[in-house]
């Protein structure tokens, strides 16, 4: 298989994975409610993303590095807004 296509598939998969939590982040910010977000799931996900970032850095694989860094940022923002809106009193 052509290596160029393999790279495009990898970039597409990385972009989809990185963007997958954007709707959740937007909903949390828009509604100012976090609902039932699992902190354990987010901790495990952030740990895995950190591992992918280190791996991408070590392999100098910029699609892995960039997409997982973006995903890490989105998920850190989800944690921040979840903590903020769970701590806020109702109607605030």
Kindly describe this structure:
This protein has 92 residues and is mostly helical. It has one domain: Monooxygenase (Up-down Bundle). Helices cover 80% and strands 0% of the residues. Helix 2 runs parallel beside helix 4. It is elongated and about 55 Å long. The model has no long low-confidence stretch (mean pLDDT 88).
Task: Record the SSE blueprint.
Layout: H1 3-19, H2 22-31, H3 39-59, H4 62-87
Give the distance, in angstroms, between the N- and C-terminal Cα atoms.
Answer: 55 Å
Second-tier CATH architecture: Up-down Bundle
Major β-sheet profile: none
The CATH class designation is Mainly Alpha
**CATH fold call:** Monooxygenase
User: How many beta-strand elements?
Assistant: 0
Low-confidence stretches: none
Q: Bin the helical content.
A: over 70%
- Using only C-alpha atoms, the radius of gyration works out to 16 Å
The structural class is: mainly alpha
Q: Which sequence of SSEs, written as H and E, runs from N to C?
A: HHHH
Shape: elongated
Total helical elements: 4
Strand content: under 5%
* Overall residue-averaged pLDDT value: 88
Number of domains: 1
Summarize this structure as a short list of keywords or feature phrases.
mainly alpha; 92 residues; 80% helix
Outline:
It contains 4 helices and no strands.
């Amino acid at each position: 298989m052509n290596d160029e296509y393999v790279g495009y598939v990898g970039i597409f998969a990385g972009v989809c994975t990185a963007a997958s939590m954007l709707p959740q982040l937007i909903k949390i910010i828009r509604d100012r409610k976090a609902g039932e977000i699992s902190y354990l799931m987010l901790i495990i996900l952030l740990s895995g993303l950190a591992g992918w970032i280190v791996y991408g850095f070590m392999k100098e694989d910029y699609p892995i590095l960039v997409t997982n860094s973006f995903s890490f940022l989105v998920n850190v923002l989800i944690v921040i807004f979840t903590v903020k809106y769970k701590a806020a009193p109702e109607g605030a």
